[in-house]
Amino acid sequence: MSKRLFLVDAYALIFKYYYAFMGRPMRNRDGVNTSVVYGFTKFLRDILKREKPDMLGVAFDPPGGCFRREIFGEYKANRPPTPEDIKLSVPYVKRLLEAMRIPVLEVAGFEADDVIGTLAKRGGEAGFKVFMVSPDKDYGQLVDENCVIYRQKGDSVEIVDCAAIEAKYGFSDPALVCDMLALWGDASDNIAGVPGIGEKGASKLVREWGTAENILANADKIGGKTGKNISEWGERLLVAKSLTAIRRDVPIEFSEAELTMCAPNKTALRELYRELNFSSFLRELESAEPAKVSVVQEVAEVQPTDAVRKK
User: Fold this and answer.
1) What global pTM score does this model have?
2) Is 118 exposed, middle or buried (0-12, 13-18, 19+ CB in 10 A)?
3) What is the average per-residue pLDDT within 240-265?
């Protein structure tokens, strides 16, 4: 059986846990918002127990933006500033990964999905089964026989493979997800789609005509208002494709040894859990049997006193 490599999109999970706990954030005794780190820790704990991966790496977006801003200056410009609690949480998440001896994957000028795309390609070529851990639909373009998307769905897991892509969009080549997104646009990244074309229209065009380049070249044959809009949109469609395309040539070494799972640094992990008041994880670390503690109980354990809350 092939070894299994899990590649995690860090910020996708960080934002997920920040908003999941926004109504009732967890705080340690010093009043620090620990929601993101708690969610991330629980996720890693669960995935290690459930999947027992052979290899694991966590990819981060680097500071300073990426090459897409050079292509389109307004890329992601519609997003609000990153919440301060997230900024304060990231160093703790990286400390957690260091203590668990899980490599942080970060390359200047490239986003996490480009890093994951590159390592997924090299991992698949090396004969590993690759699981890309993210809820983002963009990763669909990377799916192939050796590489799938791994999504948490409540307490269960959804695996998105080639068959799932075809069932959802109606075309058999997952690489065409990139072309579909170029037509449809991606509001979260401030990428405008062709006017009048939504998800269904974009997937239908890709089923019938294939790539964005071929769709643009055959706009007159597509005809009607849709063909007219595509023709008028012109080169902007190809610019959108260059923004939605996940790079697979990032200058990062694929190291099986570095990604291979190993025992955590329990001393560093113990220190971090104590600092964050993660009592259930601390108990689990100290015992042979994992502690079965609910999120509600954990929140209650780390809620600050009224004195701290009023600071």
Assistant:
1) 0.90
2) buried
3) 96
